[in-house]
């Protein structure tokens, strides 16, 4: 069992990441949207701050600005993702649509930094598009719900964040970059919430339970476990295991929320999963240097 410690931890990480969708959705029942984002990310940043404070102070001005720009991209993608959660009646389907960010990111990287995608990307992209088509078929008619449109835009926002994060991670210490990102998101969302949102007090104890789970379990513990696991696990294996997040989300959605399952949904999810599997496995196998950002999650 010790030989497979990394793999086992990564399985746990993907389940925690999937659970994060539910922690966030239930937290939003008792908190305003931006208030939830602000509290969650401010607290997560404060947990990391004592360990990164001195390295942040040592950053050059240009490095601080680059790290801040990643944080701004993060909050835009986060708002779109949270908005999708609010309106979603099918988290599993949304998770697969959101996972398309892994295939959108190479296009963004190509446009912004001239990093040309691998050949296998052009095989995977039409498969993913076909999967999105099957997910949009409702009773023989193409129809995208508001939540799925928001998740699709969130995946584009996440792809932009992933690319910027990957590019600037080469110049800024990882813990400093993470702390600044979390802080930018937390402070920006908190200010907006205080100015424009209405808080209904007292906040139920159940909401605080889900909120603390989203911070401590789905954010800090998940990041820590993923870091430890990836040191112990072969990169190819890690890439495949990390694909399980939308699968777990789909299963939990069926069990917890009793979401509907139908043939076109199954086909769509399988096609998207296959497309990402083909691309990620071949990229990792080829030793591509710009793939670390594919293993991040907002949940």
From TrEMBL:
This protein's superkingdom?
Answer: Bacteria
Give the way it sits in the membrane.
Multi-pass membrane protein
State the UniProt keywords alphabetically: Cell membrane, Membrane, Transmembrane, Transmembrane helix
Q: Which InterPro entries does this chain map to?
A: Diverse_Substrate_Transporter, EamA_dom, EmrE-like
**Pfam families in alphabetical order:** EamA (PF00892)
Segments forming domain EamA: 5-136, 148-278
Key word Transmembrane helix present in the record?
yes
Subcellular localization is given as: Cell membrane
Species name: Rodentibacter ratti
UniProt name for this protein: RhaT protein
Record-annotated membrane-spanning stretches: 7-24, 36-56, 68-88, 94-112, 119-136, 142-163, 175-195, 207-225, 237-256, 262-281
This protein's GO CC annotations: plasma membrane
């Amino acid at each position: 069992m010790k030989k497979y410690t990394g793999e086992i931890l990564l399985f746990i990480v993907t389940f925690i990441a999937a659970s994060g969708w539910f922690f966030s959705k239930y937290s939003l029942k008792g908190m305003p949207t931006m208030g939830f984002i602000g509290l969650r990310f401010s607290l997560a940043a404060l947990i990391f701050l004592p360990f990164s404070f001195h390295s942040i102070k040592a950053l050059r001005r240009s490095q601080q600005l680059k790290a801040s720009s990643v944080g701004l991209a993060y909050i835009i993608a986060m708002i779109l993702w949270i908005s999708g959660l609010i309106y979603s009646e099918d988290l599993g389907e949304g998770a697969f649509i959101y996972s398309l960010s892994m295939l959108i990111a190479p296009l963004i990287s190509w446009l912004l930094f001239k990093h040309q995608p691998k050949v296998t990307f052009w095989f995977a992209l039409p498969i993913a598009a076909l999967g999105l088509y099957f997910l949009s078929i409702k009773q023989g008619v193409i129809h995208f719900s508001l939540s799925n449109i928001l998740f699709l835009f969130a995946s584009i926002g996440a792809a932009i964040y992933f690319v910027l994060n990957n590019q600037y991670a080469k110049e800024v210490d990882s813990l400093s970059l993470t702390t600044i990102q979390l802080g930018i998101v937390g402070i920006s969302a908190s200010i907006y919430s205080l100015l424009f949102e209405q808080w209904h007090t007292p906040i139920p104890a159940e909401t605080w339970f889900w909120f603390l789970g989203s911070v401590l379990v789905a954010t800090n513990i998940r990041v820590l476990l993923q870091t430890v696991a990836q040191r112990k696990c072969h990169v190819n294996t890690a890439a495949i295991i990390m694909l399980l997040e939308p699968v777990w989300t789909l299963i939990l959605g069926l069990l917890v929320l009793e979401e509907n399952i139908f043939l076109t949904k199954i086909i769509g999810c399988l096609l998207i999963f296959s497309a990402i599997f083909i691309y990620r496995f071949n990229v990792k196998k080829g030793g591509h240097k710009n793939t670390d950002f594919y293993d991040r999650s907002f949940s």
